[in-house]
């Protein structure tokens, strides 16, 4: 394995049990019946553990949207044509996509990173870390070479490190890539141990007939590629995508420096499964923003052991569900940091 990547994986430490215990006790001194803020309390406790701070901050948040194309679209597995990936990249840069709206709403910096779009987008606002013009068709050959897979993971790492260096306190992840639900379904079926049938969904809106075809393509491809399910990077290289690999790398980078990560939908979570397999502590740095309509998402979340913060029937991607969940993290830290204690407010405790 690439030395830099190996070092990164080994550098991730467990979250702080001391801060978790301290915060658990402290929350019961605040002016509310114990446990009355429910999951918000769990979030505050987890954030203290992640950041190793008694008074954690999650603002400002930053959003990374990784974009890439997929050779597997040749098999007719998406409702939309491949050119939509670069068209949406332009839309992100012009501020007109859903994620732009939600980024503005939460005051987040939004960066779009091309890690493998099929065409060129000449625009200074786009971060170009293109590994190749789309993956290869994984029904016919491995999606990526080992070098390409590692370069894509490290492109995600670098993107996250740069954002963290600019001062973001919470990393929100998203993706764009026509065909990427097929890659994510293949990954999840191998790594999460669910059937291809359970991992496959409607993506951007295919018919039942096309969904059946998508299932058959994935089943055949997994058989042919024969990935080693105890080697997550082998599975990623054979079946994944550049944006999925970049998401894996971004998660590792954030966990290394104790920055919380909010995952978006199914594709994002598939990258998180890979990261979680590389280091057992990674999962404790992750929040699942929502559970998507894509049916494999629930299996993917269960595999990591994550409970979604929201269930809104979304199936868009881009980081939208993660950005929408961010205010829950902000509320949790404000609760921890701003509420009065029983003592201070002169309220009688039981
Ligand atoms: O986030 C999700 O759970 C999600 C579910 C379905 C579709 N998407 C988005 O739709 C695209 C992939 O869909 P498809 O049908 O082309 O594989 C890609 O750009 C994703 O961001 C995203
Ligand atoms: C229009 C469109 C927008 C998207 N955003 C993320 N995936 C997408 C797929 C399509 C087709």
From TrEMBL:
Its EC number is 2.4.2.21. GO terms for molecular function: nicotinate-nucleotide-dimethylbenzimidazole phosphoribosyltransferase activity. It catalyses: 5,6-dimethylbenzimidazole + nicotinate beta-D-ribonucleotide = alpha-ribazole 5'-phosphate + nicotinate + H(+). GO terms for biological process: cobalamin biosynthetic process. It is an enzyme of class 2 (transferase). InterPro entries: Nict_dMeBzImd_PRibTrfase (IPR003200), Nict_dMeBzImd_PRibTrfase_bact (IPR017846), Nict_dMeBzImd_PRibTrfase_N (IPR023195), Nict_dMeBzImd_PRibTrfase_sf (IPR036087). This is Nicotinate-nucleotide--dimethylbenzimidazole phosphoribosyltransferase. It comes from Thalassobacillus cyri.
